[in-house]
Amino acid sequence: MNIFRFAGDMMHLLSVVVLLLKIHKMKSCAGISLKTQELYALVFICRYLDIFTGFISLYNTIMKIVFLASAFSILWYMRSHKVVRQTYDKDQDTFRHYFLILACMVLALLVHHKFTFREVMWTFSIYLEAVAILPQLVMLQRTRNIDNLTGNYVFFLGTYRGLYMLNWVYRYLTEVHYHHRWLTWISGFIQTALYADFFYYYVKSWRNNEKLQLPA
Amino acid sequence: ISEADAKDEL
């Protein structure tokens, strides 16, 4: 495992920790899109179908469990915790995420490496992960006061896939059997590109020492 | 290329 991949995973982990910290300590999920969180839970379920059958390393298995468990605990907090659920801005979270699921499923059925259940579900998870942040980005744009934890959460999440892209370039150059991953690369590129606008305003607010606010 | 090789990323 190269440094880009490891740093990417750590950024991903950090984003989840930051979000859980906000929810657990502040007892608030203000500004967080439940729809994006639902999509991520679905992404992890579909991608990690092999969690008990396809052992790669202890690291991989533990990370998979952590991502699945954190995704479901976030969903539980936002939907069932009696204090946290009242801080959820349902009216601001209006993205039609079922259309994303449908579109990604159709695309996965049409464009995949192999037509098997496992492979199509895996491909679906790759497509869905690329666009899962959209409800959250739309919600951020509507939120006048984005708190630091929410801003950092989205920033770490964007950095994660950006580092994965460097990892792909590194692996492409250093590994012999690493040339067939175009499907992941295109999706990963789109996923990272979706954050470009957010990154711009995040860095700008950080440099000017101002509160993060996205233009409507 | 083996199946496992392609799925070693998270």
TrEMBL record, chain A:
<keyword id="KW-0813">Transport</keyword>
<feature type="transmembrane region" description="Helical">
    <location>
        <begin position="98"/>
        <end position="115"/>
    </location>
</feature>
<keyword id="KW-0472">Membrane</keyword>
<comment type="similarity">
    <text>Belongs to the ERD2 family.</text>
</comment>
<dbReference type="GO" id="GO:0046923">
    <property type="term" value="F:ER retention sequence binding"/>
</dbReference>
<feature type="transmembrane region" description="Helical">
    <location>
        <begin position="121"/>
        <end position="140"/>
    </location>
</feature>
<keyword id="KW-1133">Transmembrane helix</keyword>
<feature type="transmembrane region" description="Helical">
    <location>
        <begin position="182"/>
        <end position="203"/>
    </location>
</feature>
<keyword id="KW-0931">ER-Golgi transport</keyword>
<dbReference type="GO" id="GO:0006621">
    <property type="term" value="P:protein retention in ER lumen"/>
</dbReference>
<feature type="transmembrane region" description="Helical">
    <location>
        <begin position="152"/>
        <end position="170"/>
    </location>
</feature>
<dbReference type="GO" id="GO:0015031">
    <property type="term" value="P:protein transport"/>
</dbReference>
<protein>
    <recommendedName>
        <fullName>ER lumen protein-retaining receptor</fullName>
    </recommendedName>
</protein>
<feature type="transmembrane region" description="Helical">
    <location>
        <begin position="55"/>
        <end position="77"/>
    </location>
</feature>
<dbReference type="InterPro" id="IPR000133">
    <property type="entry name" value="ER_ret_rcpt"/>
</dbReference>
<dbReference type="GO" id="GO:0005789">
    <property type="term" value="C:endoplasmic reticulum membrane"/>
</dbReference>
<keyword id="KW-0256">Endoplasmic reticulum</keyword>
<keyword id="KW-0812">Transmembrane</keyword>
<keyword id="KW-0653">Protein transport</keyword>
<keyword id="KW-0675">Receptor</keyword>
<dbReference type="Pfam" id="PF00810">
    <property type="entry name" value="ER_lumen_recept"/>
</dbReference>
<dbReference type="GO" id="GO:0016192">
    <property type="term" value="P:vesicle-mediated transport"/>
</dbReference>
